[in-house]
């Protein structure tokens, strides 16, 4: 049997983008726009109740050209990013401490659960009163929303490390820092990034809640302006901008996950 040495076997690349991988999302978007246009046409609702996609598109162009959309989106994005950073950092450190100490968990857990029983909408006015209507109160609200899912996933990820691996590291006389760097962080990373995905998407909600309570800029403020002026197309524009922000942040975390967890794909090949 003749074997052509020039012919190479192609190894599967599950992380590589594939042609046509995004067609279901595009088809879903097209069907949604079609259904929206049909609803406007056959219900005969006024534009201040349900604007058509064309009306929203024209309002989007106006807001983009006069700079208001980019200005308010930039404010909300800065609040989201800073809140995501603060909430993730705090949740990661506290989650690691909880995972390593059962006593500390028994002391702190009731307060954490109680904090999640109160809706953020109820806490937001207090934060605005205490810290003012500036950007810091919005960052805190974002951090509160991000905090819990990242915390839980950090605890679960650290505790999921097999005990035999800890025994192996002790037998190798590894230091505390070496155990953290070479064992606990890589082992907990998949679960941690899953929580970060959720937190990245939810962080946008925190910014909008804070801007609803008290703000003079941001996409939440833009929604309030559109609602007060019965400019429903502007409300739709701001909502779509928020959706785009959430999808972008979620996609960045998903890309980061695929980049940092390449070793899992190589191991499964």
What does this structure look like?
This protein has helices at residues 23-43, 53-65, 68-100, 102-117, 120-131, 135-159, 163-171, 176-213, 219-228, 232-260, 262-268. The chain contains eleven helices and no strands. Helix 3 (68-100) packs parallel to helix 6 (135-159) and helix 8 runs parallel beside helix 9. The radius of gyration is 24 Å and the shape is elongated. It is mainly α and 269 residues long. Helices cover 79% and strands 0% of the residues. The protein has one domain (52-268): MetI-like fold (Orthogonal Bundle).
What are the SSEs and their pairings?
Layout: H1 23-43, H2 53-65, H3 68-100, H4 102-117, H5 120-131, H6 135-159, H7 163-171, H8 176-213, H9 219-228, H10 232-260, H11 262-268
Helix pairs in contact: 2-10, 3-4, 3-6, 3-8, 3-9, 5-6, 5-8, 6-8, 8-9, 8-10, 9-10
Quick tags:
single chain, 269 residues, mainly alpha, MetI-like fold, 11 helices, 79% helix
Count of distinct strands? 0
Count every helix, treating DSSP H or I runs of 4 or more residues as helices: 11
Low-confidence blocks of residues: 5-16
Percent of sequence in beta strands: under 5%
Dominant shape: elongated
Mean pLDDT: 83
* CATH level 1 class label: Mainly Alpha
Main sheet attributes: strand count, strand direction, barrel closure? none
Overall tally of structural domains: 1
Q: What is the CATH topology assignment? A: MetI-like fold
The CATH superfamily is MetI-like
Run of helices and strands: HHHHHHHHHHH
Q: What CATH architecture would you give?
A: Orthogonal Bundle
Membrane topology: Multi-pass membrane protein
Protein name: ABC transporter permease
Keywords: Cell membrane, Membrane, Transmembrane, Transmembrane helix, Transport
Subcellular location: Cell membrane
